[in-house]
Structure formats: C-alpha cells, structure tokens
C-alpha cells in the first residue's frame, strides 16, 4: 500500500454455530484479535450458550448473538441491524 493511501476500517462479521471449543474456535479468536489490532471492527454472531461467546467477551471483543442462538427470522434481523442493513 502506498504511503499516501488511507487505510480503510472494515467491519468484519463472523458467524459461528459451534457450541464446543477446539481449533476452529481458537483460530477464529486469533484472527479476530489480529484484525482488531489492525484497527478493524469485529462482530461475532454466535449462540450465547457457546464456549466461544464467553471466550470472546473475556478477550474484549464486541460480541453479539442471534435471537435464542437459533437461525430464525428474528436472528437474521439482529444480524442485519448489527451490520447496518
């Protein structure tokens, strides 16, 4: 990137439906931290009953979950509002 170009802040939305904890969830949080350290805004949409939800809160990520942690029209409305749609 040329020195005269401005860096654009991205709003990255990641969804994760897994309730467990393993490599995939660790990778998601690691990548999210890297994006946040570079000045990007990150939102994680995940069930509040998932392990990654609590881990993300402890790590200081902006965190939200769809209604009841289910794929419902209400959950889609929440997601759409989060990203400004």
Task: List its salient traits.
85 residues, alpha/beta, three-stranded parallel β-sheet, globular
Low-confidence runs of at least 5 consecutive residues: none
The whole-angstrom Rg is 14 Å
- How many alpha or pi helices? 3
What distance lies between the first and last C-alpha atoms, to the nearest angstrom?
29 Å
Give the SSE string.
EHEHEH
Strand order of the largest sheet: 1-2-3
Helix fraction bin: 40-55%
Give the overall silhouette: globular
Structural class: alpha/beta
Strand content: 5-15%
Number of strands: 3
Q: What is the overall pLDDT average?
A: 76
Produce a short descriptive summary:
The chain is α/β, with parallel strands linked by helices.
Question: What this model shows, in words?
Answer:
This protein has helices spanning 23-37, 51-59, 73-82, and strands spanning 11-15, 41-45, 63-64. 40% of the residues lie in helices and 14% in strands. With 85 residues, the protein is of the alpha/beta class. The protein contains three helices and three strands; from the N terminus they run βαβαβα. The protein has one domain. A three-stranded parallel sheet has the order 1-2-3.
Task: Please describe the topology of this protein.
Layout: E1 11-15, H1 23-37, E2 41-45, H2 51-59, E3 63-64, H3 73-82
Parallel strand pairs: 1-2, 2-3
